[in-house]
Design goal:
heterodimer, A: about 400 residues, 6-stranded mixed barrel, two-stranded antiparallel ribbon, about 55% helix, B: about 250 residues, mainly beta, 13-stranded antiparallel β-sheet, 3 helices
Chain lengths: ~400, ~250
């Protein structure tokens, strides 16, 4: 009888054991699919948040701004932002461009001053750049030229205001003087970035330029909807800046920002891969354990087939084939079930907002697992190989046992 | 007999010398009386120097006694902003905010217009130094060629911006030449050096001084008085916080 047929017959004969092994491998494969999809989703999420809400794919700043960023150097801005923005739009048709001013401010409340981070933005542009309208949870977007403000949920709760109330902000001006200004709350937006939702407010760029005595300058211009790494666009823009004599500003692709988020993302990727490896090893332990248990339980059976004249090599091959078939079936069931679980979650999302509360990272509160063929194939191959290889050690050992001793074993 | 006579002479000389050296409290009282005209109107400017360069802010200030003062900023960037001190209360008015705000708590430690002065530095109120501090004569020292007493001040309670201060008081003119301000831990927080005085109607008002906030790196603020008037009459409501927005 062929070894393949014998292996199948053994599987059918010990159906309960076969189901147990298949289930263990299937569960491990299911978990792998889900976790790897979740990790892929988290990586995508961090990348999207960084690009949409922090850096764009290309960031233009004054050459010295980064060096003094902690000191709020508003005077190290992009002087003629209108000209720069126009130049960018001409050079990169189809790109989304977002000029903005970021600044710290204290919100005056009767008993205390509340620390906050302000952004002066062009709301018409942000509708496209940050999909701001989709992020609204209350009220409406401020209108350009008006003394209106959009709060994030953290500030909305901490200040205790309602729509229509006025808040007074203190901040430093471009000339390092002080100013206070009042803005009416017209809306609340919830960003997919938890750290953003704590203390950020957005106000019309033109009003912030006036209150901070910025003239037509901004602290940065962000660009999105260009090639993935933004490097080619940045190089193109730097060439334009050089020709126009704008030597004090530089465009950088988001992956090249020094000490910046790409480094963070690379670090996060390593952390995620490490997490994946841990889960992989845990899963592999389950598979190895189940397979080894099954073979050790069958020592007597090994003795029988050896007594009937089967060679050690044939015994190893028989058990390997049996383990291989079980692994293939288990892994297949696992990746199919894992995909069935992951695909709908990829649309609905996994709400981890409560767990992420207080975590200051560019990660959203809701994770959307991303399933790919790469993950499915990787998990299927890995589970099959691990489970099949796991049969080698015990079956080789069993094959070396004297048939008489094997027959005596309980 | 000769010894007793010699001892008597030494004792008398020491008593005479002690009588000539006023107490720390007396020096402080004389110094305060000499530098605070009843009413004044002052035009001046503050120049803040830090690692990013110099920033100039001009102002007009009005004062009545030691408990009422109003500063109105006149430089372009801060035009119309006002700081009113009424007793222990401090109010700030920003035209762009359209409202008057009472400064309190941690906000009092904020810098005034980015300078080395904090709002807290302006809130001594109508109390004299001796209402908040005990004074001790620590010795003598020359500051910029002027012979000075060193008076050490220690806070009587927690409601003062600086726990201890050392003031160098000019022995001849009875004006302060230099002030060092310390935290409870003994850490030096600020230094102030008075470089020039303006004499008017018998008062000596600091007209040029430099404040350095030691918590800031490479930062100092020069305070200049350009013009000063005394015996100014103010309306009854001039120092009212309700008037700030008008």
């Amino acid at each position: 009888m062929k070894l393949t047929n014998l292996a199948f017959r053994n599987m059918r004969r010990n159906l309960r054991r076969t189901i147990l092994s298949t289930t263990a491998i299937a569960i491990a494969a299911l978990c792998f699919v889900f976790l790897f999809s979740l990790i892929a989703g988290m990586k995508d999420d961090v990348r999207t948040n960084l690009v949409n809400h922090y850096n764009g794919q290309v960031r233009i700043r004054h050459n010295e701004y980064d060096k003094y960023e902690q000191l709020n150097p508003l005077f190290l801005g992009i002087e003629d932002q209108t000209a720069v923005t126009t130049a960018v739009e001409e050079a990169l048709p189809g790109a989304y461009v977002s000029p903005k001013i970021s600044f710290p401010a204290a919100i005056y409340l009767e008993e205390e001053n509340l620390a906050s981070l302000g952004q002066g933005v062009d709301f018409e542009r942000e509708k496209v750049f940050q999909n701001l309208e989709d992020l609204m949870v209350l009220g409406r977007l401020p209108e350009m030229g008006s003394n209106e403000v959009l709060l994030t949920p953290g500030l909305y709760n901490d200040t205790g205001v309602t729509l229509g109330d006025t808040l007074t902000f203190f901040t430093q001006t471009r000339g390092r003087g002080a100013n206070g200004f009042s803005l009416t709350v017209v809306g609340v937006a919830k960003f997919p970035v938890q750290s953003f939702n704590k203390m950020t407010f957005l106000a019309p760029l033109d009003r912030i330029q006036y209150y901070l005595r910025m003239g037509d300058s901004v602290t940065e211009v962000l660009i999105r909807n260009v090639e993935e790494d933004g490097r080619t666009s940045a190089a193109l823009l730097n060439g334009i800046f050089e020709r126009r004599g704008w030597n004090d500003i530089t465009a950088l692709g988001w992956m090249d920002i020094p000490g910046g988020v790409f480094g963070w993302l690379a670090m996060a990727e390593q952390a995620y891969n490490f997490m994946g490896l841990i889960f992989f090893l845990l899963g592999a332990t389950v598979i190895v354990n189940t397979t080894m248990m099954v073979i050790f339980e069958r020592t007597k059976e090994i003795g029988t087939v050896a007594a009937m004249g089967m060679t050690g090599k044939q015994i190893v091959k028989l058990f390997f084939l049996e383990a291989l078939f079980i692994s293939i079936i288990g892994s297949l069931i696992g990746v199919i079930l894992g995909s069935i679980l992951t695909i709908p979650l990829g649309n609905v999302g996994l709400n981890m907002q409560d767990a992420m509360e207080g975590i200051s990272m560019e990660v959203s509160g809701i994770f959307y697992p991303v399933l790919s063929w790469g993950i499915v194939i990787k998990v299927f191959v890995f589970s099959t190989v691990i489970a099949s290889l796991a049969s080698f050690v015990p079956s080789r050992r069993a094959a070396k046992i004297n048939p008489i001793e094997a027959l005596r074993s309980e | 007999m000769k010894r007793i006579l010699l001892f008597g002479i030494i004792l008398t000389a020491a008593a005479a010398l002690a009588a000539q050296t006023p107490s720390a409290e007396e020096i402080i009282r004389q110094m305060e009386a000499k530098s605070s005209p009843e009413t004044s109107e002052v035009e001046g400017r503050m120049v803040t120097n830090d690692r990013f360069g110099a920033k100039e802010t001009s102002f007009i200030s009005y004062a009545q006694g030691t408990d009422l003062s109003l500063i109105e900023f006149t430089s372009l960037e801060e035009e119309g902003q006002k700081i009113l001190r009424s007793g222990d209360d401090l109010y700030v008015y920003f035209p762009d905010a359209g409202r008057t705000i009472r400064m309190q708590g941690a906000a009092l430690r904020d810098s005034v217009m980015g300078s080395d002065f904090s709002y807290e530095d302006m809130t001594t109120g109508d109390r004299g130094i001796l209402d908040d501090y005990t004074a001790e004569l620590k010795g003598s020292e020359s500051v910029d060629g002027r012979d000075c007493w060193i008076i050490g001040l220690t806070a009587l309670g927690p409601n003062v911006p600086y726990y201890t201060q050392d003031i160098w008081v000019d022995k001849e003119l009875l004006v302060s030449r230099q002030v060092y301000k310390y935290a409870v831990s003994g850490r030096l927080l600020k230094t102030m050096k008075i470089q020039e005085y303006l004499e008017m109607d018998g008062y000596l008002v600091p007209s040029r001084m430099i404040m350095e906030d030691k918590m800031k790196r490479n930062s100092s603020t020069e305070f200049h008085i350009e013009r000063m008037k005394t015996n100014v009459s103010f309306s009854r409501t001039f120092f009212s916080h309700r008037e700030l927005s008008r």
